[in-house]
Amino acid sequence: MADKTFPLPDLGEGLIDATIIEWLVKPGDRLERNDPMVEVETTKSALEIPSPLSGIVKTLHAADGETIEVGKPFVTFEVPDEEAGIVGTVPKESEPVRRVRLSLPED
Amino acid sequence: MRDTVTTVDGLSLAAEISGPDAAPAILAVHGFASTAQDNWVAAGWPRALEPLGYRLITFDLRGHGASETPHDPARYTGELLRADALAVLDHFGVERSHWLGYSLGARVGLDLAHEHPERIASLSLGGLPSHNPLSGTVPDSLLAAAAAPGRDAVALAAFIEGFGAEPSTTAEAAEAPTLLVTGDSDTVAHDPEKLAAALGAELVLLPGRTHANAITARGFKEAVVEFISRLP
Fold first, then answer.
1. What percent of chain A has pLDDT over 70?
2. Within an 8 Å CB–CB cutoff, is residue B105 touching chain A?
């Protein structure tokens, strides 16, 4: 198994941070991609961020009520090695993947 | 499927419908200074409502999102907002729909259920104030929301001026079964117990939630799914 860390995704429109309202998961939970994962609140609205992938939650990097900046580590998953990259060539501390799936305003 | 709906006074509204043809419909109507995308989609509602197997219809209220945003306060009356909702239902051929509304969207639904009880099968009302928050001193949180990036602040100022002249909603029971859901820290929609009693509504209070962040709550979504699935 390998770790895969996701940053708080870009929430658009110049929003620089978000406050965790409530994590809907805890370390050890197995999530499918798009399962509801966390509720966050920005200065503009509250939103639910779904899981970016299928895997086991390893670390939540902020607690309920904490504010974190866009781009900072948000959640770490344990995933099978083949999903984390090519075994042996990608260090575990690789660049966070920014492809968190989110439905955001298109305008 | 995205579509454009034309209102009785000739404005274009951005609407969207999803779900199985001929299934019962839920019309979800967002709050002041929000959008269908922010209030429902980004808050996780389509996913939460999926188990019902219903059609979900959303649209951006006039003055909001991808709908037209006139700057004339006269275009923002309760009568026009109710007519807009009916225009959306008519456009998609829906005679009778469940109504899911938040704040302003809840208020419009309650008023419409009194005016056209034949069109509204049930009311799921979130963060419904018993007064008109756009009348008199508007709460800072609503003003800040109107000035947020991506909003048409001039249109929303006109909305406040126009809709602010409306009286409070009629706090009487509608024919439609009614669910009221409010954050217990909501300072805009205060005294939900009294309002629920006046409406003959079931009441669900969301612990620790405010007017701004009740919309994502699991407890809200689960209450609505449970309420609608229990209806005859």
1. 76
2. no
Token pair listed for B43: 């808050």
Confidence check: pLDDT of B148 > 60: yes
- Domain holding B76, by residue range, is 2-230
- The CATH number assigned to the domain holding B93 equals 3.40.50.1820
Q: Name the residue facing B213 among A34, A41, A102 (closest C-beta).
A: A41
Q: Do A106 and B37 touch (CB under 8 A)?
A: yes
Q: Is the pLDDT of residue A46 over 90?
A: yes
Between chains, do A103 and B148 touch, taking CB under 8 Å as contact? no
- Report the number of distinct structural domains present in chain B: 1
Q: Which residue of A has its CA nearest to B65?
A: A107
User: Quick one: pLDDT at residue B149?
Assistant: 85
Domains, chain A: 2-84 (2.40.50.100)
pLDDT tens-place string over residues B39-98: 999 999 999 999 999 999 999 999 999 999 999 999 999 999 999 999 999 999 999 999
Q: Does residue A34 sit in helix, strand or coil? A: coil
Rounded CA separation B92/B96 (Å): 11
DSSP state, residue A53: S
d(CA B80, CA B101) in angstroms, rounded, equals 17
Q: How many Å apart are CA B162 and CA B70, to the nearest integer?
A: 11
**Residue range B191-215: average pLDDT?**
97
What CA–CA distance (Å, rounded) separates B186 from B124? Answer: 17
Say which residues have a Cβ less than 8 Å from residue B228's Cβ, sequence separation at least 6. Answer: B26, B52, B54, B98, B122, B124
Interface size A-B, in CB pairs within 8 Å, comes to 69
What pLDDT digit, counting tens, does each position of A65-81 carry?
Answer: 999 999 999 999 998 87
